Amino acid sequence: MATWTSTSSSSSNIRNTSTIFSCFSSLPPVFSQICRKTFTPFAGPRKKRRRSPLENMSVALPVSPPSPRTYSDDQPFLDYTTRKEDLRTAQVEDDASSPSKTVPRRKKYSQSPVKCFGVDLTPDNIAVAMVYFVQGVLGLSRLAVSFYLKDDLHLDPAETAVISGFSSLPWLIKPIYGFISDSVPLFGYRRRSYLILSGLLGAFSWSLMATFVDGKYAAASSILMGSLSVAFSDVVVDSMVVERARGESQSMSGSLQSLCWGSSAFGGIVSAYFSGSLVEAYGVRFVFGVTALLPLLTTAVAVLVKEKPVTASAWRQNNNLPDPGFLDTFKTSIVELWNAVTQRDVFLPTLFIFLWQATPHSDSAMFYFTTNKLGFTPEFLGRVKLVTSVASLLGVGLYNGFLKTVPLRKIFLITTIFGTALGLTQVFLVTGINRQFGISDEWFAIGDSLIITVLGQASFMPVLVLAARLCPEGMEATLFATLMSVSNGGSVLGGLLGAGLTQLFGVTKDRFDNLALLIILCNLSSLLPLPLLGLLPRDNSDANPKENNDIEIKSN
């Protein structure tokens, strides 16, 4: 169920999931309520009154929600650094806008007449879409990496799968990036500066691959660094997405996620065909060099993010130092993050997502079979990748047009059953049954990849929507990143299980006798999580009255 780097990942599921897969003091809980309301000064002393338990609620307390929704997106999530700055910002904004308090707050964000997937293409939205586009276009290097590990380093399928899992490790600690982005401003900015830094890190890592790397350990380290670059930028833009998606209905959240992953799929289309032809014509080193230029787009679009500098003392700004209570803030945030994740409404859906992603797959073994046994060239595999990139975009469109209002349980049930059945068709290619019906290996591979990818992308979209809607207000980047890290962790575990099964069945770079059995076992294992569908929320997808057709991401 995962792809090569999981920077889509799953990377397609961790990026692949990924991405394809943002989010990571002790003040009284009532401050979280103050930060959400307009702060206006009052004249004279105010009589104190005793607060009821419902007013003094925190994430860890099992308070009955005011609405029948099963996810707790209205409960406060406290963070000293973030809340303190939000309160100061609210005071400044209210003072500046006091003469015209009748103007709706939402109008301060400009709207664009141009829409994509129902989302206004404002500068912030364009920046988010471009970062996802870069994630997709970085697929230019995936075939080059696969051929480099197979032909230059002469690794077996199991070793390749292990390196793939190792390179996905940065996607498992995304909550740390979320906490850093939320709590440690870099040069006065929480988002813009980290986007710039991520782009520079990615350019550096692929430059190493193009020049100095000549062994499997050095290659794994450089790929790991590039994965870290994409994962960190993913957390930053996802924090902006989650702020807008929280509180929206399933369909509106789905529209915003469709813009993100549609941009990623479009980037994959742009790079797909050339990923194979460039490898065949110029070699893998040249492709790595071209890939090194792409992360610089993330650095460039960071200027589009409309972000106000974080208010801090002049001393801390001049010395670029965190608050004196940084460690205390970190400990408190970890405790509160744990309290939020262990809530029933968050923990049970997250457990299902992990198990759903943790089923083994045979991607590495199939790559070796198609190249070493069937003789597929890099150029042809580039064409297959082009088809799968288009199919990924079609999968996003399928979800956005027909499935975003369907209950989550039904989506997972249908897509898992059909996905398992379609995945078994790879046995036809391995055994040659397709040739008995007059279908060439090339055409069968293209058609099979097209159908499987459409369904796979459509089934992965609900994971993103569910994770975004589970985030309470507060450290959106941290909590969303935590949920997606759990998903990515399941995908990495699935890849490692697939590597173990590949080794167990004796499938190597030139032995494929048991490959059909490996494919059957991996695909049937996808059905194992279905009895746990009851862990998902039983919700009314469009019950939110706040839904409207104009979606925009709020600037920080």
Automatic annotation (TrEMBL):
<keyword id="KW-0812">Transmembrane</keyword>
<dbReference type="InterPro" id="IPR004324">
    <property type="entry name" value="FBT"/>
</dbReference>
<feature type="transmembrane region" description="Helical">
    <location>
        <begin position="515"/>
        <end position="536"/>
    </location>
</feature>
<feature type="region of interest" description="Disordered">
    <location>
        <begin position="88"/>
        <end position="107"/>
    </location>
</feature>
<comment type="similarity">
    <text>Belongs to the major facilitator superfamily. Phosphate:H(+) symporter (TC 2.A.1.9) family.</text>
</comment>
<feature type="transmembrane region" description="Helical">
    <location>
        <begin position="479"/>
        <end position="503"/>
    </location>
</feature>
<comment type="similarity">
    <text>Belongs to the major facilitator superfamily. Folate-biopterin transporter (TC 2.A.71) family.</text>
</comment>
<protein>
    <submittedName>
        <fullName>Folate-biopterin transporter 1, chloroplastic</fullName>
    </submittedName>
</protein>
<dbReference type="Pfam" id="PF03092">
    <property type="entry name" value="BT1"/>
</dbReference>
<keyword id="KW-0813">Transport</keyword>
<keyword id="KW-1133">Transmembrane helix</keyword>
<dbReference type="InterPro" id="IPR039309">
    <property type="entry name" value="BT1"/>
</dbReference>
<dbReference type="InterPro" id="IPR036259">
    <property type="entry name" value="MFS_trans_sf"/>
</dbReference>
<feature type="region of interest" description="Disordered">
    <location>
        <begin position="44"/>
        <end position="75"/>
    </location>
</feature>
<keyword id="KW-0472">Membrane</keyword>
<feature type="transmembrane region" description="Helical">
    <location>
        <begin position="282"/>
        <end position="305"/>
    </location>
</feature>
<feature type="transmembrane region" description="Helical">
    <location>
        <begin position="194"/>
        <end position="213"/>
    </location>
</feature>
<dbReference type="GO" id="GO:0016020">
    <property type="term" value="C:membrane"/>
</dbReference>
<feature type="transmembrane region" description="Helical">
    <location>
        <begin position="411"/>
        <end position="431"/>
    </location>
</feature>
<feature type="transmembrane region" description="Helical">
    <location>
        <begin position="443"/>
        <end position="467"/>
    </location>
</feature>
